[in-house]
Amino acid sequence: MAPVVDTLRLTAEDAIGLVQRGDVSAGELHAAYLEAIEERDGELHAYLRTVEEADGASIPIALKDVISTRGVETTAGSRILEGYVPVFDATVAARCRAAGLTLLGKTNTDEFAMGSSTENSAWGPSRNPWDPALVPGGSGGGTAAAVSAGLAPWGLGSDTGGSIKQPSALCGNVGLRPTYGSVSRFGVVAFASSLDQIGPVAKTVRDVALLYSIIAGRDRCDSTTVELPEEVRLPEDERVDGLRIGVPRQLADLDAIEPGVRAAFERSLELAEELGAELGECDLPLSYRYGMPCYYLVAPAEASSNLARYDGVRYGLRTEADTYDGMVERTRDDGFGPEPKRRIMLGTYALSAGYYEAFYGQAQKVRTLLIREHREALEPFDVIATPTSPAVAFPIGDKAADPLAMYACDLLTIPSCLAGLPGLSIPCGLSDGLPVGLQLLGPQFGENTLFRLGHALERALGFDTVPERLR
Hints:
Layout lengths: L11 H10 L4 H19 L2 E4 L9 E5 L26 H8 L3 E6 L33 H8 L5 E6 L5 H7 L2 E4 L19 E6 L2 H11 L28 E5 L10 H16 L3 E5 L2 H22 L17 H12 L2 H14 L5 H22 L4 E5 L15 H5 L6 H5 L4 E9 L2 E8 L5 H15 L10
Parallel strand pairs: 2-3, 2-4, 7-8, 7-9
Antiparallel strand pairs: 1-3, 4-6, 5-6, 5-10, 9-11, 10-11
Helix pairs in contact: 4-5, 8-10, 8-11
């Protein structure tokens, strides 16, 4: 008889211990998670497909469906890639395999990772384990929902403007967007190449740090990657004496931050002080004023270039027509959903003759200012703290007809992504019974400091990551 495994509360670190001690085998653990998926994923739709057999000697992992997996369909949540089965692994998938991790399945995502709610998936929306009537965030809502509901001990997501941190906040998980260049993008379906990063989602900061240590480092297949300047350290400290935390003074004027979110954020700052941290004010005036418009020129412009490869010839969907041009046009019309079409058109316009310098060129200049602003803001501090999302999870369909309202969900995560900086989101409380995320931002390659503070706060907060309805 197979041992009973409580996947709802099992952390990745604890799961590794079970396998190493021989309490369960890798196959038995894999089967326990498949059983949990069978039981709970019908209402959540966190997974697009699962892998039935364990192919490693350690614990399972869920991968967002923008990460290429050898022999397993990879669609990026889009009809245009329906039926595409890669013949190779993305570097991060290969490193997980090399560490003995078993692929549990591919998780749902907004199409080409474009969205903040996972409602843009061609295969239907994912739902929040805390309340299935609500969104799990996006674009990585499938991974966040899977970890939150005990359908995976941990997972990998991708983050362009907040797609790891924001769904982690809305689902009550820990999520890391690493420093740009610290994790390979080879084999990841591209959205915006100067912004995309792969990062871990898990129940604890230590789990996130452990998974980051597996996937990080230089990759000869991605020329933007570098070796880490120091080894990843699993955090142990329960105090953070002398750590300096900057709080942007502009947060006080942002009406988009809900009162319950603001209250949980302020309580977490008070707790950080009790743990020995020193608080002070910093300035990010350009980031919250120009971050979103800058992002929605840079990212769509890069998406316009990257998505041009989907022409019905090389892979994925093909809609026949009498001419080549007609085939390409019909394939793209049938294959792309409304959000990719919107961003492709916006990006193509921003790159077009006569408008390039006025839009894309100007946005890149603003991006340079945002990078400088973050560097100056961090000079007297070790970490900058903000809420992760200005609001808690909202009803499915609530913002679907208003793209600007949807884009505003990433108001607080976008600026640091444009700056290429690492960001860690940890759950810091509840508002109206729903999780609130605390975002910790550091300088380039400052992940270890984020882990140290995040772990200390996590222990002090004692947040129960299991959704109340599932306890």
